[in-house]
Amino acid sequence: MKVKLAKTAGFCMGVRRAMNIVLDAANRKKGKLYTYGPLVHNPQAVEMLKQKGVDILGNNSVSNATVILRAHGVAPGERKKIKDAGNVICDATCPHVARAQAILKREIRGGYKAIIVGDRGHAEVNGLLGYAGGKGFVVENIADVEGLPELDKACIIAQTTQDRKIFRGIVEKIRSKIPDIKIFDTICDSTSMRQREVLELAEEVDAMVIVGGRNSANTKRLYEISLSTGVPSFHIEEEGELDHPG
């Protein structure tokens, strides 16, 4: 059996950067070290960090520790709460996410409402909503557009791992509803390259195996794109999930 490995396989730049920041902090750490939520939606990577003494900060609060903000970023209010508790913040927010945050901050200040095209409840989207300061709306699909209130002016941004085809479709639908609209394609290059390669590989193979965390928005998006091509597609987290014919 011939196996083709995607050229873009592996962690994206933002996650690699976050992982390097955490590993460096773990090697130099003095005192307790936490990530604000799972660093990545990859159980194997999270377990590896745990073995190095990096714990996940969930709903419990800590003080006088080092807290690493993961690649997804956090809302300004969450950052303040962590800092006010006497913690040292180590920021591993993906630069692409930070750019989206900066756009929201600027446009909200200019009197615009914000429309975020992404997965409701996702950590990155929650953080972006925080930067919208109560003036943001999440749109997951075209059907959600009908539920938007009347807006005179708004800006549109995307969750950085959004499907670009879905984003464009939603943007076209919104254009007809809002007179003054600013559109910012904040989907990261790594995401676009992976999505493009999935479509290309689907034309060359008999089946696709997408490897990644079950809670990873990026991995789930790639799996959905693969399924949409009609090629038999499988989403797994580790090699043990593959069937080995006896």
- Looking at CATH, the homologous superfamily of the largest domain is 4-hydroxy-3-methylbut-2-enyl diphosphate reductase, catalytic domain
Number of domains: 3
Helix-strand makeup class: alpha/beta
Residue runs with pLDDT of under 50 for 5 or more positions: none
Span of the ends, CA to CA: 15 Å
Please state the second-level CATH architecture of the largest domain: 3-Layer(aba) Sandwich
Summarize the amount of helix as a percent range.
Answer: 40-55%
Please count the beta strands (DSSP E, at least 2 residues each).
10
Q: What name does the CATH topology of the largest domain carry?
A: Cobalt-precorrin-4 Transmethylase, domain 1
Rg over C-alpha atoms, rounded to the nearest angstrom: 20 Å
What kind of sheet is the major sheet?
Answer: 4 strands, parallel
Instruction: Give the SSE string.
Output: HEHEEHEHEHEHEHEHEHE
CATH class category name of the largest domain: Alpha Beta
How many distinct helices? 9
Sum up the overall morphology in one term.
flat
Q: Kindly estimate the percentage of residues that lie in beta strands according to DSSP.
A: 15-25%
Main sheet: which strands, in order across? 2-1-3-4
Give the overall pLDDT as a whole number. Answer: 91
